[in-house]
Amino acid sequence: MPRSTASAPACAPAPAARSSRPAAPRAARNSRPKSAVLARANRITQGSDYRRLTRAPRVGGRGLIVHGAIRDDALAPTRFGFIITKRVGVAVVRNTLRRRLKAITRELLTLVPSGLDFVIRVHPEAVALSYEELRRQTRRQLLEVVQRVAPNAIPEQCSCSDVSD
């Protein structure tokens, strides 16, 4: 029978066990589908552009205000910017709305002529909107701003069913 001494335990230590289950293999960072992301060329990043656009013509609705203006270069890609203040909610809520709006504006790029800039200002009421309501309202307001800023840019036969709302 083994005796315990002060310098060593009486029993051999148990083999180390894994502390957690093995993780599932992860996808590579760059494997995100490109279609879900608004390209950098289509985003407003300069503060001076935001200041210029917040003074431009706008259309407001429940939770959103869309500002729009024509760029100096008519062949430049259409760009979008988002203003979502802390009044809207905590960071998780703000980032969720920003991601939704980026996806929505990515879809709407085909309906909007090039050479325009837009800023979408989000108010706290937008948190209560479902994705479809947010999409419908953003589309309607965006196309209304386009009609005000560049009335000849949208063809008369448009596939947009909610332009006349």
TrEMBL record:
Main enzyme class:
hydrolase
E.C. no: 3.1.26.5
Molecular-function GO terms, alphabetical: 3'-tRNA processing endoribonuclease activity; ribonuclease P activity; tRNA binding
GO cellular component terms listed in the entry, alphabetical order: ribonuclease P complex
Pfam families recorded for this chain? Ribonuclease_P
| Catalytic function, reaction form | Endonucleolytic cleavage of RNA, removing 5'-extranucleotides from tRNA precursor
Q: Name one GO biological process term.
A: tRNA 5'-leader removal
Against SUPFAM superfamilies, the record matches this protein to: Ribosomal protein S5 domain 2-like
Gene3D superfamilies attached here? 3.30.230.10
Q: Which domain of life is it from?
A: Bacteria
| Signal peptide segment | none
For region Disordered, the annotated ranges are 1-36
- Supply the alphabetized keyword list: Endonuclease, Hydrolase, Nuclease, RNA-binding, tRNA processing
Q: How does it assemble?
A: Consists of a catalytic RNA component (M1 or rnpB) and a protein subunit.
Describe the function of this protein.
Answer: RNaseP catalyzes the removal of the 5'-leader sequence from pre-tRNA to produce the mature 5'-terminus. It can also cleave other RNA substrates such as 4.5S RNA. The protein component plays an auxiliary but essential role in vivo by binding to the 5'-leader sequence and broadening the substrate specificity of the ribozyme.
The record's similarity note reads:
Belongs to the RnpA family.
NCBIfam families xref list: rnpA (TIGR00188)
Mind telling me what this protein is named?
Ribonuclease P protein component
